[in-house]
Amino acid sequence: MNLSVVIPAYNEEKRLGATLERTIDYLTGQKADFEILVVDDGSSDGTTALAAGFADRGVRVLENPGNRGKGYSVRHGMLEATKDLVLFSDADLSTPIEEVERLAAPILAGDADVAIGSRAVRGANIEVSQPFYRVLMGKTFNRFVRLIAVGGIADTQCGFKLFTRDAAQAVFSRQRFDGFSFDVEILFIARNRGLRIAEVPVRWVNDPDSKVSAVADSARMFGDLFKVRWNALRGRYR
Fold first, then answer.
1. CA distances from 11 to 50, 159, 181, 208 (A)
2. What's the pTM value of the predicted model, to 2 decimals?
3. Range of the domain at 189
4. pLDDT > 90: what percent of the chain?
5. DSSP 8-class letter at 131
């Protein structure tokens, strides 16, 4: 497998080392041609120094100009990636890196340009669930996503998505949102560009240290659904 792995990181000093070790060990064991891009989003802890310590093991560190948000970080890394397949993954590995094989299958078979991990389709294995209020909010948000922006996708928010490099360039060069709602926007853009999207069941373990605010970020994300449509009407995704 020829793979770039993009990991957005903001104050991830405590978790990032174990994530990099596991990712490197797995990809080395698979005899993959890989690079890992850690995108530091203005961290105030030792995230950058820790990631730089893995430079001789295929890790590159990209630094944002300050704290810009997860969407900005993912876009930064995806556009800098050099391999044929480009994955972005959360720093906590809520979806284990081994699940990339499932996502790669439809792309390598020529059936998809984008493969997204899903916790909501048959075959998904949620080992540790989110609190009930987050599950309820997620389901409610997805109903609005289907109605307003991207129909037919059961889980837009899982932070484990794989693109061909050409698809990544086409999508992320047009992405506008810097915050957590970028997931919906990139899927909207992918559909708009005629790219084929496969939704793939994955294993998932909730991390209680989520940086997504159940109130402030959720409200902003609902508003961004309408901004996606507004941006499309204004031709900002052309």
1. 11, 17, 20, 15
2. 0.90
3. 2-233
4. 73
5. P
